[in-house]
Amino acid sequence: TVAHNIKVETNGHNNNNVHENKIVNEKPQDLQEARRQLPVYMVRNRLLEEIKKHDTMILIGETGSGKTTQIPQLIHEQRLEGAGAIAVTQPRRVAAITIALRVAAEMNTEIGSIVGYSVRFEDVTSPRTKVKYMTDGMLLREAILDPLLKKYSIVVLDEAHERTVSTDVLFGIVKLAQKERNEKKLNPLKVIVMSATMDVDSFKKYFNNCPVIYLEGRTYPVTIYHSKMKQEDYQYAAVCTIFQLHATAPANHDFLVFLTGQEEIETVMYNIKQIAKEATGPPIRVCPLYAGLPPAKQLQVWRDAPPGTRKIILATNIAEASVTIPRIQCVIDTGVVKERTWSGGTGAERLSVRATSQAACWQRAGRAGRTQAGAAYRLYTAADFRARPMHQTPEILRCPLASTMLLLIAAGVEPSTFPLIDTPPPDSVKASLSLLKELGAIDSEVNPKLTVIGKKMSTFPIEPKYSKVLLCAPEYNCLDEALSLIAVLSSENVFHTPMHKREEAIKMKQKFLSPLGDHITLLNVFKAFSKAPLKKQWCKENYLNHKNLTYACEVRQQLLAICLKLNMTVTSCGQAYDQVLKCLLCGLFTNCAWQRGGAGGARAAGRYVTAAGAAAALHPASALQALRPPPPALLYSELLVTGRSYMLTVSAIQPQWLQQVAPEYARRCRANR
Ligand code: ADP
Ligand code: MG
User: Fold this and answer.
1) Lowest mean pLDDT among 54-63, 126-135, 343-352, 437-446
2) To 5 degrees, how large is the angle CA 543–CA 555–CA 532?
3) Which of 33, 312, 346, 625 has the greatest number of beta carbons closer than 10 A?
4) Euclidean distance between CA atoms 291 and 298, whole angstroms
5) What is the reported pTM?
6) Is the CB of 38 under 6 A from ligand 1?
7) Mean pLDDT lowest for which of 123-132, 323-332, 478-487, 573-582?
8) ipTM of this model?
9) Paired strand residues for 462
């Protein structure tokens, strides 16, 4: 997705957000009893003493010990936050939402009042909110407007071991804010860094030798089994393992399977349901859990299956540490994760399936020992495990930094002196600054200052490439279309393709298909959705995802509000879609690809080379797949690397357009080709 996070108007708890606000259905007294059982609760007094005593501390504790849900509540019960609020950051949106809902239920209050959450495109807080769960990206956005974070007296940076770019940058922001608030004699800022497992030494050093508190976990032994042989197909191996275990494990044993993403989870889910019809063993309930899943469906994960039924949870790495699922006896670990990487030199951004770190493998295995002894089945060999790196490389060392750099510059920070735990490779900093320069956001790559357009770009919570598209849109008479398109690109997949009705779903998609490519196809979908009177029913009939399209509508509203604040005029180009594509190219000119060996060559058909010089193919799901002859030049939104490189969300462009919208870049591309 293109968006990061957004600052929106507070709309309290009578908002019409897309999430259903109730996912906890236990009774209040049961919730209180459960709280008292948590390791954090047992040592609460000592913890509170430490929190009172120190301005900064690190808290390490097993996943499920109650750090995220309890610490903010304990602080609030003692009113340690004073007049300010407590911010608790999470790398993931789903985690921020589900945890806030859980905590609101535990405190027996409505979400959006004392307890709230704030995630990209959705703010469920009010002026009364004291405990605010938010994505790390959201707090970072707030920091541009107020680098001292004056609203907060306590900032809890949770899941620090994930080392997302936003959390890493926040470490620096809170450090500077603490210092400056002290110097200006403002109320002090307390910082609590929380994590399951992490490289404590570098953190301790970074935070000037602050105290580290270790929570005693309550864990039961987990027996680890490794594959004897290397598995060629981990999805297949996972399904086989599930059914081998299913045949003999007691029915009340629940399984947790780690996979990489939504599509994979849906495929495996379908396969399990098919095989389960004929397999020996108790009835099965399969529950998916991934970032884009609607909260109503997430609830399934925490609901007990009927007695005698086995629950099998298929999750991404979100179940590794961010959320805790009780009663898992058996973990099946494919040992892979989908990760965004980037090569600074070529500027190619990629999403690839990679082996997890040893730390992540242990985290995953640990999910089996929360309530009783369990087992973890690793679908990789012991030798493979030993060959893995201890920790995942922090995101800041492998991700595009353009939007982070833009934020830092907007916050008035000089990127080269900003204190970071790990300094990103100079190449990568240079490439992001040069992209920002190319987009016209900064005046110079050395000692950069925001330009007028750059300042506008920084107010949009989306990638600079896309905010540039919006800012260029009035010139192409297509702000209306650009808003819709970027809103759809910011949401998860809008097409709903159930495995068993694949053919029908694909047939339905034809209706929206544009020969110009996926972007206009998405625009067609969005336009039709906006006009449909009975949206839910209409989506069902057309195999579209109602939730994701509704979300896109909200995103569009938020983006529109920013455009209007910037005095931009919203006009439509009607059917002149060339305008939309040219406008898209204004921001995405680095995402061009040309047919290999020039147009026409039969052998080269469908094989492309990107502006960065990498070979890439059209994704099989692209609307352009059927187009003959294949277009000579393309524009893509994403490059997916899974063995082969696939371009996702692709449109056909005229080769000369690049020359028109980004002449300097076009010249450089020609020189490289
Ligand atoms: P930590 O942050 O230390 O990993 P949490 O505070 O997230 O721990 O969770 C503490 C406990 O609260 C978990 O062990 C789990 O039993 C329970 N819990 C948390 N979230 C939910 C939820 N959405 N539904 C049911 N139980 C939950
Ligand atoms: Mg936690």
Assistant:
1) 343-352
2) 40
3) 312
4) 10
5) 0.81
6) yes
7) 323-332
8) 0.98
9) 3
Regarding the beta carbon of 367 and ligand 1, being less than 6 Å apart is answered no
The CB of 65 under 6 Å from ligand 1? The reply is: yes
What distances in angstroms separate CA 353 from CA 91, 264, 350, 363, one per listed residue? 19, 11, 10, 18
Half-sphere CA count of 490, side-chain side, radius 13 A: 29
Q: Which residue has the tokens 């707090």?
A: 139
Query: What number of other Cβ atoms are within 10 A of residue 72's Cβ?
Result: 28
Rounded Cα distance, 530 and 549, in Å? 9
Distance 394 CA to ligand 1 centre (A): 25
Q: Which one-letter amino acid corresponds to residue 185?
A: K
β-partners of residue 57 are 192
Q: How much is the pLDDT for 288? A: 94
Place of tokens 């890439």: 616
Residue 325: phi and psi, rounded to 5, are: -115, 120
Which residues have C-beta within 8 Å of that of residue 566, sequence separation ≥ 6?
456, 459
In the predicted model, what is the mean pLDDT of residues 30-44?
89
Mutational pocket test of ligand 1: of 69, 159, 214, 289, the residue with most ligand atoms within 8 Å of the beta carbon: 69
From the CA of 151, how far away is ligand 1's center (Å)? 27
Tell me the three state secondary structure of residue 177: helix
Q: Helix 577-588 vs helix 464-472: angle between axes, to the nearest 10 degrees?
A: 140
Question: On the CB side of 154, how many CA atoms lie within 13 Å of its CA?
Answer: 28
Chain-centre distance for alpha carbon 32: 31
Quick one: pLDDT at residue 345?
44
CB–CB of 303/323 below 8 Å?
no
